[in-house]
Design goal:
It is a single chain. With 354 residues, this protein is mainly alpha-helical. The chain has 4 domains: 52 residues, Annexin (Annexin V, domain 1), CATH 1.10.220; 71 residues, Annexin V, domain 1, CATH 1.10.220; 76 residues, Annexin V, domain 1 (Orthogonal Bundle); 56 residues, Annexin (Annexin V, domain 1, Orthogonal Bundle), CATH 1.10.220. The chain has 22 helices and no strands. Helix 18 crosses helix 20. The protein is elongated and about 65 Å long. The two termini are 25 Å apart. Belongs to the annexin family.
Length: 354
């Protein structure tokens, strides 16, 4: 079934490698799109021609004088190349112009558009390591970001994220999480970091699924008080496909969903953690996150993180589930709730509607 898995993964991708790719022209396009080249070009022309004009081309002169940064050129290159190709473009940019591409982009762009474009330039695991580090630094820990990332990654991905985190920040991700959290939340995050939920085979033991459902019911609904560790153990050590079967069996036993039970038996950050782990067992979860990123009062960090991190994995599948869940497309939600270059870049990454 390896061919089927590969086909499904390819169908899920919205950003693919560009054919006939050459990083050198792309690097030159990006260089010319930014202000430095405009300053250089205008310096070589008579002073009169340095006067700002709404027209990018001056009649009678073959040289183009960009009016500031050409954001659309940046969008056209970076949203239509795979992450691996973007890394090659960055190397070519430094070799040709002696500048770091990501730092140059930061100096030329601003706001949400800058945040999105810079996110695209990080290698995948380093991007997630940065998001985790940012979630733990400063005042208050953004538990939702940590839970979201850890609950939706495979064991191999988690290992790569931990490696990137230690290389970039000189400390252990697990130790930093332990220092920043406590109690049951700390336990659930450390459990998730072990990657025990990963199961590439997709095999589900119906008997074990039924037993787990009964154990969850006994731990929450049938006894006085909640056995949090039983919930944590099952949610953090069973595969996504197994948990889907467990939740089906649970609903038959309890006559209510696992989500409703978690809400009634827990609260605060532990409730959020358990709900996130449970929902991450299904691609619907990513649709749910995308909705809360693109909906009213956009949570731009969530939106950017999910679109950037899933665009080369399963964003097409998420888009289909998003439409089923909310009756509108992800791109239409983005168009309603974002604007300008930020909106255009997001729409390029999301691709055509299902």
């Amino acid at each position: 079934m390896a061919w089927w898995k590969a086909w499904i993964e390819q169908e899920g991708v919205t950003v693919k490698s560009s054919s006939h790719f050459n990083p050198d022209p792309d690097a030159e396009t990006l260089y010319k799109a930014m202000k430095g080249i405009g300053e250089w070009a205008s310096a070589a022309l008579p002073p009169l021609l340095k006067t700002p004009s709404p027209q990018p081309w001056k009649q009678g002169h073959s040289r183009c004088i960009p009016a500031g940064t050409n954001e659309q050129a940046i969008i056209d290159v970076l949203t239509r190349r795979s992450n691996a190709q973007r890394q090659q473009i960055a190397k070519s940019f430094k070799a040709q112009f002696g500048k770091d591409l990501t730092e140059t982009l930061k100096s030329e762009l601003s706001g949400k558009f800058e945040r999105l474009i810079v996110a695209l330039m990080y290698p995948p695991y380093r991007y997630e390591a940065k998001e985790l580090h940012d979630a733990m630094k400063g005042l208050g820990t953004k538990e939702g970001v940590i839970i979201e990332i850890l609950a939706s990654r495979t064991k191999k991905q988690l290992q790569e994220i931990m490696k990137a985190y230690e290389e970039d920040y000189g400390s252990s991700l697990e130790e930093d999480i332990q220092a920043d959290t406590s109690g049951y939340l700390e336990r659930i995050l450390v459990c998730l970091l072990q990657g025990s939920r990963d199961d590439v085979s997709g095999f589900v033991d119906p008997g074990l699924a039924l037993q787990d459902a009964q154990d969850l019911h006994a731990a929450g609904e049938k006894i006085r008080g909640t056995d949090e560790m039983k919930f944590i153990t099952i949610l953090c050590t069973r595969s996504a496909t197994h948990l889907l079967r467990v939740f089906e069996e649970y609903e038959k036993i309890a006559n209510k969903s696992i989500e409703d039970s978690i809400k009634s038996e827990t609260h605060g950050s532990l409730e959020e953690a358990m709900l996130t782990v449970g929902k991450s067992s299904d691609v619907h979860f990513s649709g749910h996150r995308a909705y809360h990123g693109a909906g009213a009062g956009t949570r731009d960090g969530t939106l950017i993180r999910n679109i950037v991190s899933r665009s080369e994995i399963d964003l097409n599948l998420i888009k289909c589930h998003f439409k089923k869940m909310y009756g509108k497309t992800l791109s239409s939600m983005i168009m309603e709730d974002t604007s300008g270059d930020y909106k255009n870049a997001l729409l390029n990454l999301v691709g055509s509607d299902p």
